[in-house]
Structures
1.
Amino acid sequence: MSSFGATNTNPNKSHEVTSPPSDSVSSLSFSPKANFLIATSWDNQVLCSAWKDDGTTVFTGSCDKQVKMWPLLSGGQPTTVAVHDGPIKEIAWIPEMNVLATGSWDKTIKYWDTRQQNPVHTQQLPDLCCTMDVRHPLMVVGTADRNLIVFNLQNPQNEYKRIISPLKYQTRCVAAFPDQQGFLVGSIEGRVGVHHLDDALQDKNFTFRCHRENNDIYSVNSLNFHPVHHTFATAGSDGAFHFWDKNSKQRLKNMQRCSQPIPCGTFNNDGSIYAYAVCYDWSKGAETHNPTTAKNYIYLHIPQDTDVKGRSQTASTGGRR
């Protein structure tokens, strides 16, 4: 993998967020009700974040094996509402069930009624939880051994389906389809898989390369569906983010590379803003990171409608396999 030649952290002229975290950004989450953005960071060893559906509460999961609940309106102190035996990598509030789902490196998924001390259910996983996404009743979990485990949350005690990732290398991120009929999976090898759950639709599954330049291959760090058009964004360790249409197998917009990796990105609730972080993503380990000189940025990109709206099925794409 080559080093970054450019020095511009904002070649796409996005809006810069002031006072970013002092260390690498680990997650970004928009409120479902308004344009409030939560950023978590390695400076407090916080790995993930999620909002309650009413926009009044934020949850954060950390390396201290706890999930904290932050009441924003009252300004009260955070309380611990979930615990694991390992760092908590993923969290999701599921309003249809009124529970919090937490995924940990202790190889479990737990479901919590935040008013109770103990989980309402603990689900064993075959390996560490690396990534998770929920579109009720669909939940997709990616584990360190390349397993992709699908749950129907109407029966969360049982796995609905388990498959080995169609990608040859470690899973980095997943995103459930907005229509709950399948999911995207991204890997460290600059590739995304599009997978349908219905056995009758397996001929529509495909993979495509992205976040590559010549012989340099970069991790796909983030996958996010647009909330209106149901196209999606990828962001990677090459410092780029792109917009895609899975139905026509097209790349809709190719954005310019930033001078550092993009570890995470997310759309706001109406898709008018795409937020992304530009900072070190730990893909080369601690030995290449100097926290005293490292710079961390959060940007807000305003996509044009043509950048995120799906196009005709008849067009082809250079990003196809």
2.
Amino acid sequence: MSEYPNKPPGHGYGYGYGAPPSGQPYGSSPPYSANPYGAAPPPHGQGNPYAPAAAPYAAPYAPPGQKPHKDNFQTHGGSSGGYPPASAPSYPSPFATLVPSAFPPGADPSVIACFQIADQDGSGLIDDKELQMALSSYNQSFSLRTVRLLMYHFTNTNIRKIGPKEFTSLYYNLQNWRSIFERFDKDRSGKIDSSELRDALLSMGFAVSPTVLDLLVSKFDKTGGKSKAIEYDNFIECCLTVKGLTEKFKEKDTNYSGSATFTYESFMLTVLPFLIA
């Protein structure tokens, strides 16, 4: 499965997220020092895109030569209070209504039957618990958190409903991820360790640093980091998090440089859905 970020067509330079650089043996540790992520920022005043603004995050206002007073809290528009300023851009609602859909042509009859059994009220949509039940009927047991993250990934909303089109895509992607998990679970333990997870993510086009890899294993290890390995359910959640955050980052990284600028609001809307699923 080829995932972002492979080198975009027409660009003559490599890209910082994707598969290992050419000439590097597959499965070996990528040269993370060359990766633009995690590199030390330039000295202050030398093009640092994260240098603080003149009045970041609605800092207390004070006339020149005077100390700011706690009551003089202003936004860019001059009104009292914190975020957002009056001119803040609007963002799509994370609870937008899901557009009705239909099964794509040629959908597997077993997939259609699985959805229809779960759709007990015949509404054409199934909720998180119905989806959990539908997946369990095919020997794929997932926690509600993983199910909700799957729903968010395939609908881009937090309403916890999914239709036939999205369900079909979700189902086939799960089959692909299952095959990836089994391929890299080399000792057939039902778990993958750090090195196996690194190789699995590389196969999907995501080269994460050792620090990020350690955080992922610590987060998704059901034993709280004691076994330093993750099971299939949490592997899916891990992949969804890495894939989803990378795709959101890609939307801002229009120059394919490995760097992006986010407003406070867009950053929060990017990260929070993965925390509250």
3.
Amino acid sequence: MSFTFRFWSIIFGPSEEWLLSRQVGCTLPPKKRVLKKNEWETWLQENWEDCKKLNISFQDLGDPYQVQNFNRILRRLIRVETLWLVDNSLIDLSAIRLPSCRVLNMSKNYLTSFKQLPNIPQIQHLSLAENHIETLDGLSRFRCTPLEILTLKRNPCEFHQNYRKQVFLCLPNLKILDGILKLPEDCSPPENIFSKLCILS
């Protein structure tokens, strides 16, 4: 078995997409994996630089040494193209650069801003569902990337007025937002509520 698929064995539950495709509700969260210090040492000896597809979701990163070693692994993923980091209690990966990453799933973490994401210049598909992102500040950093699919479902920013219009205005090359194709009404500029008030008065 090639290195590319060697670490898929650490998945501890079906993906959200798998569940949704079968209309099955996930009542019990997957059990998080707790790595001991000697296991981390083994992980760090792997040839992460040649990894192209990797799922290291559902990791229990409760101790500082776990977070430190986890970030050390991420910094070595210079060729990874598909990366899943679901439900890892991640807060800030802004110091991480993933130069080849095209698909990144960071759903169910503790992100509060787009500025906390890693540097992903080649990103095409980005999933940030179920985080704590309140505003669209910092989203423009992806304007010069090939991003086509973005998922922000179940973030506070989803409930802002003209949410979809603002996202597509910021990312004109985006094709799909929250699983819905770009619609004609998404292309029109957001209505200015202040101008409406002036007309009515």
